[in-house]
Specification:
- The protein has 153 residues and is of the alpha/beta class.
- Helices cover 41% and strands 15% of the residues.
- It has 5 helices and 5 strands.
- Helix 1 crosses helix 5 and helix 2 packs parallel to helix 3.
- 31% of the residues are buried.
Length: 153
């Protein structure tokens, strides 16, 4: 089986420092994935709605995997999960939560809404690199993901 060369990950994170750390951690892993960062939940939904209607050749990419924080402005991570999993064309995209919360109700609530995974944000850069390597190993090397291109009639 030939593996896909580059996967598209989308990160919804409102902290610019955490966005930069995620980008640097991904670069430190040496993994060839594309990371699209968005500042809040509404921006993520807006991007995906535009991508659905866009011609992929114009550069609009649906992600292979979405990583969201729970505490996002405009639309929270929970609201994003509800909207994505309620949308027939987007519900197949796995959504992983990466948050500071360790609360059991947050973990259970996210899985109830259709999250594919729940990670607590590590406190070190090395920890973040390890999380991204783990995501790569599981989601991009072991699991068979659905295609990330919108279907054309």
């Amino acid at each position: 089986m030939i593996a896909k060369e580059q996967f598209v990950m989308m990160l919804a994170e409102d902290d610019p420092d955490d966005q930069l750390l995620a980008q640097e951690a991904l670069e430190a892993t040496g993994l060839p994935h594309k990371l699209i960062t968005l500042d809040d939940g509404q921006e993520l939904i807006d991007y995906l709605e535009v991508s659905e209607e866009s011609d992929v050749s114009k550069g609009a990419l649906l992600p292979d995997l979405i990583v969201i924080d729970l505490n996002l402005p405009r639309l929270s991570g929970r609201q994003v999960l509800e909207l994505l999993k309620g949308n027939e064309r987007l519900r197949h995209i796995p959504v992983v939560v990466l948050t500071t919360s360790k609360a059991e109700e947050d973990v259970l609530g996210c899985y109830d809404l259709g999250a594919a995974g729940f990670f607590t944000k590590p406190v070190s850069f090395e920890g973040l690199v390890h999380v991204l390597e783990s995501i790569d190993q599981y989601w991009f090397k072991m699991v068979k993901l659905p295609p990330n291109k919108p279907e054309t009639d």
